[in-house]
Amino acid sequence: xxxxxxxxxxxxxxxxxxxxxxxxxxxxxxxxxxxxxxxxxxxxxxxxxxxxxxxxxxxxxxxxxxxxxxxxxxxxxxxxxxxxxxxxxxxxxxxxxxxxxxxxxxxxxxxxxxxxxxxxxxxxxxxxxxxxxxxxxxxxxxxxxxxxxxxxxxxxxxxxxxxxxxxxxxxxxxxxxxxxxxxxxxxxxxxxxxxxxxxxxxxxxxxxxxxxxxxxxxxxxxxxxxxxxxxxxxxxxxxxxxxxxxxxxxxxxxxxxxxxxxxxxxxxxxxxxxxxxxxxxx
Length: 282
Ligand code: SAM
Hints:
The protein is an alpha/beta fold. It has two domains: about 5-205, Vaccinia Virus protein VP39 (Rossmann fold, 3-Layer(aba) Sandwich); about 215-280, rRNA adenine dimethylase, C-terminal domain (Helicase, Ruva Protein, domain 3), CATH 1.10.8.100. Helix content is about 40%, strand content about 15%. The protein contains eleven helices and nine strands. The protein has helices spanning about 5-10, 30-40, 55-65, 75-90, 125-135, 150-155, 165-175, 215-225, 235-240, 245-255, 270-275, and strands spanning about 25, 45-50, 70-75, 95-100, 115-120, 140-145, 175-185, 190, 195-205. The chain has a seven-stranded mixed sheet with strand order 4-3-2-5-6-9-7. α5 (about 125-135) packs parallel to α7, α8 (about 215-225) packs across α9 and α8 (about 215-225) packs across α11 (about 270-275). It is elongated and about 70 Å long. The protein binds S-adenosylmethionine.
């Protein structure tokens, strides 16, 4: 695939000084775009939400393979340039929306099957993933380019050597299956970021979407408390965060087959689910 002319022109456009605060590192590696399209298993019936359309290179590639792309972009400068490019290229199946993804309602996807593709800015990676997974209208498939380190965290499991799990690992595991598609070197982007990136695929499994609001609230509270200071022991973290006597927390953990001295990163998803279910007994 050749880089689309309009996107290249945008990259050369003097008005387009990439904004670091918006995580503007544009993908310039055509092979990476092919990998994303393959990972998303696109077909002509697909509705795709793209987050952070940027210069529109990925957007245009998706439009060629899917039925429709709804492309979100926060930066008004890029939106103006992209609108012009879409018009010039006479592409009919791209709907461009100037909006912050974190303020964008997914309600319009109610009852619709859709996929998400995004080369995400670092600063919104975690909230965007949680938004997509916690909504009752979650996509059937999510393909993301994110920082390599963050991808490794999401994919880490307690038994993975030298890989630390985090709150994001646990939340992602509750709602989805995750897999690594591949790594991308810094020079796949312009301007080059400080770190390498990874492409990951997240497949929501809807196992816990129907669970009660109380379970979800308890799950959120216990995971947040457990990871409060990841190097600290679980009993200390939970006791401090939830303002409960340490002995009581230790007894509750033991009753649920967890040693109070364990650290949050050593717990499997089944442990967190058990703790959330028994939260009222704490
Ligand atoms: N998709 C393009 C590509 O791969 O070349 C751009 C990717 S760049 C890493 C991230 C894009 O997300 C930028 O265009 C940036 O302006 C946009 N962006 C940043 N924060 C955003 C937000 N909160 N909501 C929507 N778009 C955002």
